[in-house]
Design brief:
The chain has about 200 residues and is α/β, with parallel strands linked by helices. The protein has a single domain, classed as Phosphopantoate/pantothenate synthetase (Rossmann fold), CATH 3.40.50.12640. The protein has 6 helices and 8 strands; from the N terminus they run ββαβααβαβαββαβ. The protein has an 8-stranded mixed β-sheet, with helices on both faces. Helix 1 crosses helix 6 and helix 3 packs parallel to helix 6. The longest helix has 17 residues.
């Protein structure tokens, strides 16, 4: 049972922000999600994600190795679904192809370094970002650093149990769930806000 009043919200929270789990934030059960450290029904979180992405000035998706590399058919299908999501939102893609430290050689326009994700956030003026296909332990590290040093709103679409340090997280997200989110976004957008269908992708 969740007993904490700790809110996982945009920072900067400080040089060493506490891990949300240490503050009592617990992962959601099946059919549930986390919004700013609070357990809610998954449908509520999906609507909130759609709202955040639609209203964002510079929404950016950070895909990780689990979908960047075509290591099985499920990964390939999920990558296709994420591309459809990006096109529906009109977001940028900045990939996280691996987790090796690259600072200060990283080009923040081309990829995100999980050891210094705040640099990519600052450089690109990203106000809302989505983690998808990032291994959980690296996602947790990067999300905590982003929360500590930036005011970027973080969303994590997790294939496993979710991420306490994201401002919104869904669990058990695969290709089908990504496409359901995309449909919610399309339904929430007004006709004048509909994108041209072209994704703004950084390589």
């Amino acid at each position: 049972m969740q007993t904490t009043n700790y809110k996982v919200i945009g920072g900067p929270e400080g040089y060493l922000p506490p891990a949300a789990a240490s503050m009592g934030v617990v992962l959601p059960n099946k059919g549930e999600a986390l919004v700013e450290g609070r357990i809610v029904p998954q449908e509520e979180a999906v609507k909130k994600i759609a709202e955040k992405l639609i209203l964002a000035k510079n929404p950016t998706v950070f895909p990780g190795p689990l979908i960047l590399w075509a290591w099985n058919e499920k990964a390939i299908e999920k990558a296709k679904a994420v591309k459809e999501l990006v096109e529906a939102v009109g977001a940028k893609i900045i990939p996280m192809p691996d987790y090796r430290p690259k600072y200060p050689m990283i080009n923040p326009e081309e990829e995100i370094n999980p050891n210094h994700p705040n640099l990519t956030i600052w450089h690109n003026k990203i106000d809302v970002c989505v983690f998808v296909g990032v291994h959980c332990h690296y996602a947790n590290l990067a999300l905590k650093i982003i929360r500590g040093g930036t005011n970027c709103y973080t969303i994590a679409l997790c294939g496993n149990y979710g991420h306490e340090d994201a401002m919104i997280t869904l669990r058990d997200v695969h290709a089908e769930e990504v496409r359901e989110l995309t449909e919610v976004i399309k339904n929430q957008k007004s006709p004048k806000d509909k994108p041209t269908g072209q994704a703004n992708i950084s390589y």
